[in-house]
Design goal:
By secondary structure, the protein is of the alpha/beta class. The protein has two domains: 214 residues, Alpha-Beta Complex (2-enoyl-CoA Hydratase, Chain A, domain 1), CATH 3.90.226; 63 residues. It contains eleven helices and eleven strands. It has a seven-stranded mixed beta sheet, sandwiched between helices. The protein is globular and about 65 Å long. It starts with a strand and ends in a 16-residue tail after the last helix. The mean pLDDT is 95. The structure holds coenzyme A (COA). The site of coenzyme A has 15 residues, from helix 2 and strand 7. Coenzyme A (COA) binds next to helix 2 and strand 7.
Length: 285
């Protein structure tokens, strides 16, 4: 089944010019869509993504979110002209765009109530690293080009980049790439743990969409609890995290009407499937 989300922004009065949203079998694909500018993130793009994420958050047809780029780029990072140059004399707008851009990449995606996957199809620079880092999973094309290129134009990885990279990269790798500005490919991105793995570009979409469809078939409440229990407890001490996990278990079982006991464990005990070998979604009802 394929849903058409192309009119999605119209409900909020925002006809999208810089992004596209499509849906396929429960997987929403948000495409950064300024290929002529290598999908550099201009102020309008940040507003449009923010709007789309708000809609997808509550759309039951969107069970997994994939983020990718049009053409040969994932994203060339912040739009250097429209952000750094054109807003230089407009401090209020510069501040607003900074906040909006940091919010959707730093927090909205990270704590999105559904699984998120970055599908890195090509060029990925500077600020675009924070999209990849904030997504739960990331798969790159072998051919994708990555660089923390800020140092190459006499800047440092500002905004949320430095903090965001500290969540994922080893200090040696981060400082190496941030200080040299040297590019690396998808295979290296996998080697240093920046993405889960890489595949040849020709196999990227089907690989990612296949995994996304598999995940979309899992219990949505359990998926949400999986990422929330992990992400929120990172900042907690042990006792608080145990308390939080207990509260989350109560919330989860109520949200899914105890399906993990009734169907999940129940069907295992009835010998209908073995959870160690595959998911409950394959059980004939
Ligand atoms: N901000 C604004 N515009 C950008 C951009 C960015 N981050 N990245 C690319 N573009 C624009 C180019 O200015 C060019 O616009 P034009 O056709 O109107 O002149 C267009 O996108 C295509 O880029 P071009 O440089 O001609 O393509 P290329 O294939 O030769 O190189 C890149 C692609 C991405 C390697 C190169 O554009 C680049 O180095 N971009 C900057 C990347 C960067 O440092 N990003 C970090 C930002 S935090």
């Amino acid at each position: 089944m394929t849903n058409d989300f192309t009119r999605m922004g119209e409900g909020t009065g925002m006809a999208y010019e810089t992004i596209r949203v499509d849906s396929d079998d429960g997987v929403a694909v948000l495409t950064l869509d300024r290929p002529e500018k290598k999908n550099a993130m201009n102020p309008r793009l940040h507003d449009e993504v923010t709007d789309a994420l708000e809609i997808l958050r509550y759309d039951d047809d969107a069970r997994v979110l994939v983020i990718t780029g049009a053409g040969d780029a994932f994203s060339a990072g912040m739009d250097l002209k429209e952000f750094f140059i054109e807003l230089k004399e407009k401090p209020a707008e510069y501040d607003r765009v900074t906040r909006v851009s940091v919010e959707w990449r730093g927090r909205t995606i990270r704590y999105f109530p559904k699984p998120t996957i970055a599908m890195v199809n090509g060029h990925c620079y500077g600020g675009a690293f924070t999209i990849v880092e904030a997504c739960d999973l990331a798969v790159a094309a072998d051919e994708a080009k990555f660089a923390l290129s800020e140092i190459n134009f006499k800047m440092f990885p500002g905004g949320s980049v430095s903090k965001s990279m500290g969540n994922l990269l080893r200090p040696r790798d981060y400082l190496w790439y941030a200080m040299t500005g040297r590019p690396f490919d998808g295979k290296t991105a996998a080697d240093i743990g920046f993405v889960n793995f890489s595949v040849p570009l020709g196999e990227l979409r089907e690989t990612v969409m296949g995994a996304a469809r598999d995940i979309a078939a899992k219990d949505p409440s359990a998926l949400r609890a999986t990422k929330e229990a992990y992400r929120h407890s990172l900042d907690m001490d042990w006792d608080t995290a145990m308390n939080y996990a207990s509260a989350m278990e109560a919330q989860h079982t109520r949200r899914q009407d105890d399906a993990f006991r009734k169907e999940g464990i129940g069907d295992f005990l009835d010998k209908k499937y073995r959870p160690g070998l595959g998911g409950h979604e394959k059980v004939e009802s």
